[in-house]
Design a protein that fits this description.
About 20% of the residues are buried. This protein has a six-stranded antiparallel β-barrel. The protein has helices spanning about 10-20, 60-65, 100-105; strands spanning about 5-10, 25-30, 35-45, 50-55, 70-75, 80-95, 120-125, 125-135. The protein has one domain: Electron Transport, Fmn-binding Protein, Chain A (Pnp Oxidase, Chain A). It is an alpha+beta fold and about 150 residues long.
Length: about 150
């Protein structure tokens, strides 16, 4: 029997519900054969796709277009020792269809650092996983305040 590690696996619907509450996430991709992590404002599309708005000339836009990436967001409460983390893995693509870009202009995320030429990057939610650490859970029989 394995000890309780204090975490509970989350289902896809619960992951997407929690993800929708996060103001910031991190897109994880490969840049020059090394892992790169960039914090971004984002929103979710109706099907759970992750939408990011960025400068069309940014290194991030060029690096992720057509690549499989991970997107992670989380929340933590250090006082109650609780929180959650959700990871969406899938192919990222710059939205080039004008009708789709116009739709995303109405519902998509707003850029925190607007630039003259912005694009939307969409991450298809091929794999959605998450874990929750609930307040008061024990880890190997120890209370979090121990």
């Amino acid at each position: 029997m394995y000890p309780n590690d204090g975490f509970r696996e989350l289902g896809r619907d619960e992951c997407l519900r929690l993800l929708a509450t996060a103001p910031i996430g991190r897109i994880v991709f490969t840049r020059q054969a090394l892992p790169a992590v960039v914090p971004v404002a984002f929103s979710l599309d109706v099907d759970g796709g992750v939408l990011v708005r960025t400068s069309a000339t940014s290194g991030t836009a060029r690096a992720v277009d057509g690549a499989v990436v991970a997107f992670e967001a989380d929340a933590a409460d250090v006082e109650t020792h609780s929180g959650w983390s959700v990871v969406v893995t899938g192919r990222a693509e710059i939205v080039t269809d004008r009708a789709e870009a116009a739709r995303l202009e109405r519902i998509g995320p707003r850029s925190w650092a607007p630039s003259p030429q912005e694009v939307f990057v969409r991450i298809e939610p091929e794999l959605v996983t998450g874990r929750e650490l609930a307040a008061g859970r024990t880890l190997y029989g120890l209370h979090p305040s121990a």
